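Entry type: protein chain
Record version: 2
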Amino acid sequence: MRALVIGASGFIGGAIARRLLAEGVFVRALVRDDATAEAWEALGAETARGDLGDPSAIAAAAESITHVVCAAGITSCRAAPRALRWTHVAGAENLVMACKHAEVTRLVYVTCTDVGLTNEDRVHWDENRAPAERAFGDRARSLQLGEELLLGTAGPELEAVSLRAAWTWGPGDTSRLPGLLDEARRGGVRLVGDGRTYLATTYIDHLVDAAFAALTASDAAGRPFHVVDPVFQHARDFFTALSEALSLPAPRSSAPMAVAWPMARLRGQGAGGLTPDEMLQRGRSTLFDFSAACGKLAYDPQVGFDEGLRRLAAWVEERGGVDAVAALQKAPPSAASVDAQVSAAGGD
């Protein structure tokens, strides 16, 4: 196996690339800058320059590659619609075209359960269950379209597998955790209602295990898989345990969804400044059936919740503490932030 990892500079892609290197797999990382390239080369990976917006760069990086993992995506619901479409929809199309051109045999695409984000509870849903209405919000719709495009345009010559992770957490999280810590420092993580709705999560090691298995699983091509923790817990319990592990204020309750949602839709913002999308993420129950991953990918999550929290707290301490990790928070991608990528790729 010769693997290309797209998104290796991020939380999930970086963890997958490190696992591949540890397993003795040849890894090439698609990166944007020299500093990131030097860091990966020091770990034993090859590097290529480019990003998900440039099919030519992906195709060049995929030369002599047999397997591709794409974990490049936008986690923030506050990103500009143009940035979301460019990354998740145009990016998926670019990815498939480039992989076919380079004759890649297997493509593993890491997305999330927000492909079905709507104002309804999704409890014990399997991958074949679809929401009653289209996904809510620009981010969820772009994720939904990107996955549909990828699975629909891949084929026998390019076997595609989509992994739907839930709220991904664990050591190394420089994506969602910094903003959450900043929110917690300012009085506690904001719950929707009393937080007694189920929250599906995915510990990073579990997602890495699933991605590694998906690269070679014999009967997985052409379909999505839920990759989630085997833990049934409320949003309040998850955020309380996280806050306690990091010595942060307890989460804060707010108006229940039935009261807060209409106002949030009207104003574009709900309790504590949460966007309507974020209110759905925290205020609607999510529990996903992951039996397909257990069967097809031999998915067997091993890290318990308490152990995961211990590892996360240790990593935060190693990085300099809560304030240091919170300072890693980045502004959501804007429309202007994709202009350079669009230009480099030859326009929209």
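Comment: The first helix runs from residue 11 to 22.
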